[in-house]
Amino acid sequence: MVRLGKLRAKTIRYTLLLLSLAAIVSLNFVAAEMVDENIGKISITPLRNEIAIQPGSTYQDKIKVTNGSGSNIRITMSVEEFGVLNEQYDYIFEEDADLANWVNFSDSNIELKPGQFKEIDYRIGVPISAEPGGRYVSLFASSDIIENGAITTRQRVGSLLYITVQGDVTRDGRLLSLSSPWLVLDNSDWSVNIQNTGTTHFRSEYSVSVRDIFDNQINYSSNDKLILPSTIRLVAGKFSLPIWPGIYKIVYAVSLGDKPSYKNTIYFIYLPFWSWGLSGLIVVYRVLIKKRKMIKKL
Which CATH number fits domain 173-275: 2.60.40.2950, 3.30.450.20, 2.40.128.710, 3.10.450.50? Predict the structure, then answer.
């Protein structure tokens, strides 16, 4: 009886400990949710802009910054040059770049109340000595959420500017590789690697058309991606699968800036898993029919 009482006491203590831990986790989760209400509430538009400017000239435009949180936000505007790290186009930003001196804001420090927005003018001045080609900067809005006089959260959103300094520029696109399946079960992934050896960016438009062997179009999709100079970009997707098993073809078309578009037709066999089961049933059925015929002959 004594051992049983001790066991019950230990069980009660462990239960209370677990309940306490659960309460702490629950409180932390609620607190995190309360903080998250103020995170991600600042927005900026447009998210990107493509601009062409002559050397020695200026360009003026505006961006809109909105406070979607429930607190006052102090916003600081800044400029950073950007590029990409890899073929997946993960961005990298550089502070204190000389290119940032090209951009000036009408107001670099503002304060927004909950739900308030403001349009901020900016001006890009291109030096007369600037060489033709692509330049890439991001206009950042950095926010401090102010509650009871204290800064509680810091956030940053950006608007990307794709600037072409006009002149003798090139958009030299090349398709380095195309990956497309010849046997499709349920995976319809495809990908291309596009290189730009030119001096400024271009927008590569691509399309994927799935057709039967009689050239009847079954599915079609298209999109476009920006390709920065001196980079290689991986573009990947999935094509829509046909309804029935069989032999089909995919027609790929990819624009490459100033170069002729790339076009290629690749055939593939579509054998979904359910067709395997159907084929198995047909084989079993034929075997049974043959056996019945043999039995009747006997």
Answer: 2.60.40.2950
